[in-house]
Amino acid sequence: MDVEETALPGIGLRHDFQLRSGARLGVVSRRGGKREVIVYDPDDPDRVSLSLKLSAEESDVLAELLGAPRMVEKLTAVADAFAGLVGEQLPIPPGSPYAGRPLGDTRARTRTGASIVAVVRRGEVFASPRPDFLFAEGDVVVVVGTPENTAEVAALLREG
Amino acid sequence: MHQASIFVELGLVLTVLGFAGGLAGRLGISPIPLYLVAGLAFGQGGILPLGASEEFIEIGADLGVVLLLLSLGLEYTADELIVGLRRNSRAGLVDLVLNAAPGVVAGLLLGWGPLAATVLGGVTAVSSSGIISKVLRDLGRLGNRETPVVLSVLVIEDLAMAVYLPVITALLAHETFGRASLSVSIALAALVLALVLALRFSGAVSRLVDDPSTERDDENLLLRVLGLALLVAGGARMIHVSDAVAAFLVGIALSGPVAEGAREVLSPLRDLFAAVFFVFFGLRTNPSAIPPVFLPALALAVVGVATKVVTGWWAARASGLATMGRFRAGAALVARGEFSIVIAGLAVAGGIEPRLGPFAACYVLLLAVLGPVGARFVEPITRAGLRVRARRGGPPRPPRPPSPPRPEPVG
Prior knowledge:
The complex is a heterodimer of chains A (160) and B (411). Chain A is an alpha+beta fold and 160 residues long. Chain A has helices at residues 56-81, 108-112, 147-159, and strands spanning 4-8, 12-18, 24-30, 35-40, 48-54, 86-91, 115-121, 124-127, 140-145. Chain A has a five-stranded antiparallel beta sheet. In chain A, strands 6-9-7-8 form a four-stranded antiparallel beta sheet, sandwiched between helices. The N and C termini of chain A lie far apart (44 Å). Chain B is built from 16 helices and no strands. Chain B has helices spanning 2-27, 32-42, 54-75, 78-109, 114-125, 129-138, 147-172, 177-200, 202-209, 218-238, 243-253, 257-284, 290-318, 323-332, 338-350, 356-392. In chain B, helix 3 packs parallel to helix 11, helix 3 (54-75) packs antiparallel against helix 12 and helix 5 (114-125) runs antiparallel to helix 15. The radius of gyration of chain B is 22 Å and the shape is globular. The chains are: A alpha+beta (160), B mainly alpha (411). Chain A binds chain B through residues 4-11, 14, 16, 26, 28, 30-32, 36, 38, 40, 44-48, 51, 53, and chain B through 72, 75-76, 79-81, 83-84, 129, 133, 140-148, 151-152, 154-155, 260, 263-264, 321-322, 324-325, 328, 402, 405, 407-408, 410-411.
């Protein structure tokens, strides 16, 4: 996919690309984390016909919505090839004993057999985290395993 | 008692400015024209002349210019400046020549002398980056394809000012030609230095104002950035090089997260002192001097609209945009504002032509309002114009298919 990048001096960056459906979609990245999701007018391709202004937090939410489930879907597609495996997104809940502690402390694989393959934090994906990766409350842990042992990981993250 | 009257006067001015800003927001226009009007009301010949606070307001106005240009420099990264230069240098040249010419011609026709005419040329040439970016944002046009064209033209105007202001400053100080050329050479060398610092040594420069290993300390950052900018600006003033440009270059030299943080902490100060700056300009302008210059200012404003529309149209066409995009670009560039007043302010302080102040105030008032209004209504107006042309022009010309936008260099 051809993503065009254009500098907007004094404002930020614009990225846009053509959708297969024919529409043209873009994102204006402004300084300070604000974003604008834009859709170009099919009749006047120079003109934006829809512009959604997102604050920095709203951008994070959108990125998370678009990023994490997509990754899990891809993982699930792979896991489907191996019957019996699932990919789950498990949040580090408030009050979790592992918030602020390294991943290795959970000993999730030893205790349950499931594998932690990625952590999603504020829309950013950290793939294949090492045992010294520090969890933070609100992180979403992507776990691959059987339905039973991923549930065990969920309990583990909750109670320790 | 003296102190008390300063406080009361300042409080009154700022309160009025606050209400003016709120009104401007409600009307959807920039507050700049209203600030100017407030200044007119408070100055000599106005309804409520100020006395005690004028000295503070004068210093505040100077600070306002420094902060305006420092913020502008902070907005740009060195990459953007270079990309802007490379992408649209021809359009920038057209913009400057086409828009300065009416001002210079008008100044000469009004019998003001070459120096005042040159200043008027600067007043008519430079569009208001502040008003234009706000208008583009409000109208949701940041993503439009004509926007990078408009912004690049503004970049070139800002860089041109970095040369123009030292020239004007030197000429207004009655410098000899040799001395003036020295000032310009220093300014150009400083511009190159600032760009090099921003591109290669941004880490070192940023460390001057911020300690990257610790979390950002707003108070520290504010004091150091402002201190640095004032030191450099003051030093520039001492050697008769424009302090405004010095502040601009400090802004450019700072880049990355430090620039981001500096913009945030400076923004309220800039808003305050920039408002004071506009009021001060209005203060120095006698309202009774406006009616005699109103008609010439109006005429020049109409010409100013036309020349900017042509500039934008031409620049957009050169970038492969279709008709609507070209007119949107043209309409976007019309607004004049802060920089025209900065330039006029230099001349008023230099005392070369008493009619320049009121003329510039009138001109900017008209265009600061017409610009955003024009940008808002350019699309229906253009469509109506095209329909009229189609009806009159006999067999309708097939509309030229919009040429595909030229691929932008990635990165």
